[in-house]
């Protein structure tokens, strides 16, 4: 990889040469805010040549067959060795690994930054809950949830790299990372009768809702007075959200870090189109607890207040802090 000042290439586009021939492939993209291009090319493992402007010009001429592309200066150049490695543990005591410190892999698929941000968010809200008194097993769940994701990513990026070496690469659904789930997490608590549909540990789906005309939701004025809103609007932020469906009366007390929303004909939010019921498949009187990262934490019956409190003390809130 090299950042270079050059002439002969249009700065308005990326340039990709020898597509399908991994051994001779070269890419060159203009770096925004500079007059430089970044050049990437695959070298043999034993290639030890030092790239001066003249050497890189000759290298490009040989690879792309053009004599009009000339390198004038190289402010930065580096050799990058692709690896596929993962730390044996993400946590030892008070030391945690995340992102590139926990896993490295080929850049094929473009999932490195996404995965690192997911690591950081997963660990961040759990550390915050731990500081409020949540149980130690919440911090342990960070490795239990995120390491399998990195293992899958290593296999995916390596497979895509092999495909690219063969002259083609296909971005399939697994590259989109929309199917990441934590159903094997210790945080995933479900009801015995839930054999199908949405499961604890899966991504919470969105749904349109309508605010009851007699009041406003517990998320400020969203959905107040018959206004429509999206469920994802309620889930924004760093709090847990308890969605109580067709429950009568209080389920548990609200507190710092937990929002409670009553959905149903007698609730503050109405599922007029039935999308919430279809997506979550809750029976009247059931509740779903949504984690700060937008994943389903647990399903409960509304009358299981003690079980909900125990869950919150272990994994979520820790210290009961009333509004």
TrEMBL record:
Keywords attached to this entry: FAD, Flavoprotein, Monooxygenase, Oxidoreductase
Cofactor: FAD
Domain FAD-binding residue range list: 23-155
Function, in words: Serves to protect the cell against DNA damage by alkyl hydroperoxides. It can use either NADH or NADPH as electron donor for direct reduction of redox dyes or of alkyl hydroperoxides when combined with the AhpC protein.
The keyword Transferase appears for this protein: no
Family membership noted in the UniProt record: Belongs to the PheA/TfdB FAD monooxygenase family.
Family annotation (InterPro entries): FAD-bd, FAD/NAD-bd_sf, RIFMO-like, Thioredoxin-like_sf
Pfam family, one: FAD_binding_3
Keyword Oxidoreductase among record annotations: yes
UniProt name for this protein: Alkyl hydroperoxide reductase subunit F
């Amino acid at each position: 990889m090299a950042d270079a000042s050059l002439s002969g290439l249009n700065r308005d586009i990326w340039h990709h040469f020898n597509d399908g021939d991994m051994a001779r492939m070269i890419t060159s993209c203009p770096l925004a805010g500079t007059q430089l291009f970044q050049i990437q090319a695959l070298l043999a493992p034993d290639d030890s040549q030092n790239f001066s402007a003249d050497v890189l010009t000759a290298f490009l001429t040989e690879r792309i067959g053009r004599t009009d592309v000339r390198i004038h200066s190289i402010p930065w150049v580096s050799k990058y060795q692709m690896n596929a490695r993962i730390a044996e543990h993400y946590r030892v005591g008070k030391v945690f690994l995340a992102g590139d410190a926990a896993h490295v892999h080929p850049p094929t698929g473009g999932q490195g930054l996404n995965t690192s941000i997911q690591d950081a968010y997963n660990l961040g809200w759990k550390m915050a809950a731990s500081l409020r008194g949540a149980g130690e097993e919440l911090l342990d769940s960070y490795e239990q949830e995120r390491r399998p994701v990195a293992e899958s990513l290593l296999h995916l990026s390596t497979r895509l790299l092999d495909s690219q070496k063969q002259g083609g690469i296909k971005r399939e659904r697994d590259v989109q990372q929309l199917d990441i789930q934590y159903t094997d997490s210790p945080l995933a608590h479900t009801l015995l009768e839930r054999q199908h549909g949405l499961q604890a540990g899966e991504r919470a789906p969105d749904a349109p809702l309508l605010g009851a005309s007699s009041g406003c939701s517990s998320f400020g004025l969203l959905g107040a007075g018959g206004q429509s809103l999206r469920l994802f609007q309620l889930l924004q932020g760093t709090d847990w959200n308890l969605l109580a469906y067709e429950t009568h009366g209080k389920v548990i007390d609200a507190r710092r870090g937990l929002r409670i929303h009553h959905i149903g004909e007698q609730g503050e939010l109405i599922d007029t189109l039935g999308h919430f019921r279809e997506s979550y498949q809750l029976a009247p009187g059931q509740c779903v607890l949504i984690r700060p990262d937008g994943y389903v934490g647990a399903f409960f019956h509304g009358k299981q207040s003690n079980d909900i409190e125990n869950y919150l003390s272990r994994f979520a809130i820790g210290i009961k802090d009333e509004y």
